[in-house]
Amino acid sequence: MDIVLVAGLWLDGSAWDDVLPELEALGHRGVPVTLPGQGDGRTEATYDEQVEAVVAAVDAADGAPLVVGHSAACTLAWAAADRRPDGVAGVALIGGFPSTEGESYADFFEPVDGAMPFPGWKKFEGPDSDDMSEELKADLLGRMIPVPVGVTRGTVHWTSDARHAVPLTLICPEFSPAEAQEWIDAGDVPELAAATDLRLVDLDSGHWPMYTQPAALARVVDEAARR
């Protein structure tokens, strides 16, 4: 199966380099997406352009793909299901949740010169990054890409209730499935609460398992694909 891979903020398609051979060994073809404004050489881009890039990858896939979104890009992966509910085999979300209708996509930190830079590892101390070596952090810090405000401050709109029936897997790295279920039950994640085919899966890692646990991540993605 083709598996469309969408990394979160500050990352480009190379974030999946260690995951691709693991997926191939399991019989899949990984299709990393380099998003507009995140590694394609552009300094300006919009949220809608990023959605269009993910949908284009879905349309170009060999058959109906699984779409995998990481962190903030969980919204982009779910947007593919929203735009192509009959064109995706399912969606897997890693360490994040789809935004609620009318929210900004990812307006989390103050921008600098029209883009939101990575705020540094101190903001992610604890379970998010405990499994990362200092060498890995230093390497990634040098590769993080400031995300244009046209992306981070874009408004999320959902268009098709048919997305709610798309098979959905929430991969829980730095939080547990039990914690995720509590948030869903409390009404904090309306998109997941409305999903009719949702599975929660544990993954013992921090927030960036594509770097720290690529083989384990590939296995849970494979399980999502085989649903």
Automatic annotation (TrEMBL):
GO terms for MF: hydrolase activity
Identification of the protein by name: Alpha/beta fold hydrolase
All copies of domain AB hydrolase-1, residue ranges: 3-219
This protein's UniProt keywords: Hydrolase
Organism from which the protein derives: Nocardioides zeicaulis
Superkingdom in the source lineage: Bacteria
